[in-house]
Specification:
36% of the residues lie in helices and 23% in strands. It is α+β, with helices and mostly antiparallel strands. It has 2 domains: 80 residues, Nucleic acid-binding proteins (OB fold (Dihydrolipoamide Acetyltransferase, E2P)); 150 residues, de novo design (two linked rop proteins) (Up-down Bundle), CATH 1.20.1440. The chain has a 5-stranded mixed β-barrel. Strands 7-6-8 form a 3-stranded antiparallel sheet. A hairpin with a 3-residue loop joins strand 6 and strand 7. Helix 1 runs parallel beside helix 3. It is globular. The mean pLDDT is 90.
């Protein structure tokens, strides 16, 4: 198998032996694949190839191999993507971690690749972070076969009522009521769910949308916490301490 100039993004990397790197990349036509980039960290007169293999930058990658771990043979950067900064950088790391945790290798998702590419471009611009992330999360769930129907009661099949409240059931989806007796569950108003269905994720819907998507994703992520979320919390805590420190 030899693939040339495949549109791709690096979503995770780790050192391998003395000068190489093992990459998890998300490609347009082959989904998530693993590549070994041999000699990438070796310094030459032209610098290190590792500088090109960074997250959030569109690339054209050539690779070959029959095994699950394929060999990277060429890298071509695609120009025009601004860097992610601040909170938007952590949002990008969060999306990458979702892809690494939830995508099976060698399972193509061209629509998800397009959504990821659009999300990164939106984060690099002025789009609202919450809208970008919620839209991406919903597309990811749809592509994985866990689509979330925000307008129908998963138990009765009836349309969500604006005046009612619903809870998330991993087997059925959104169901009217507050969950099983003795088990408190987060509830979401029908009005908020219908607003989300229409693509609204800001204003009064911002917090319930965030909580709902977090709850739905947790059912598929398992017990291991997301490192990107912990890093963001740590950064906020450090920033808060600095702002509270007395000025000399």
């Amino acid at each position: 198998m030899r693939v040339n100039l495949q549109p791709a993004y690096v979503i995770h990397s780790r050192p391998y032996r003395d000068t190489s790197v093992i990459l998890e990349v998300f490609t347009a036509e082959y989904g998530r694949i693993s590549l070994v980039a041999r000699g990438t960290r070796r310094q030459t007169r032209r610098g290190s190839k590792a500088a090109l293999l960074q997250p959030f930058f569109p690339l054209l990658l050539s690779f070959f191999g029959r095994a699950e771990l394929k060999t990277l043979s060429a890298i071509e950067p695609v120009k025009g993507m601004p860097a992610l900064r601040g909170e938007r950088l952590f949002s990008g790391l969060y999306m990458n971690e979702l892809l690494v945790r939830l995508l099976h290798r060698n399972d193509a998702h061209p629509a998800l690749f397009s959504a990821y590419d659009c999300a990164l471009k939106a984060l690099a611009g002025i789009a609202t972070v919450d809208t970008v992330l919620r839209s991406f999360e919903i597309t990811l769930l749809d592509e994985l076969g866990y689509g979330l129907n925000l307008s129908l009661d998963g138990a009765s099949g009836e349309r969500v009522n604006e005046a009612s409240h619903y809870h998330y059931d991993p087997e059925l989806g959104l169901v009217a009521g507050s969950g099983a007796s003795g088990r408190p569950a987060a509830t979401y108003s029908g009005a908020d769910l219908l607003a989300m269905e229409s693509g609204e994720f800001e204003g009064p819907v911002r917090l319930p949308a965030k909580l709902l998507l977090r709850e739905v994703l947790a059912a598929h992520l398992g017990d291991m916490p997301l490192h990107s979320r912990e890093l963001f919390r740590l950064k906020r805590a450090l920033s808060s301490k600095r702002s509270d420190a007395p000025q000399s």
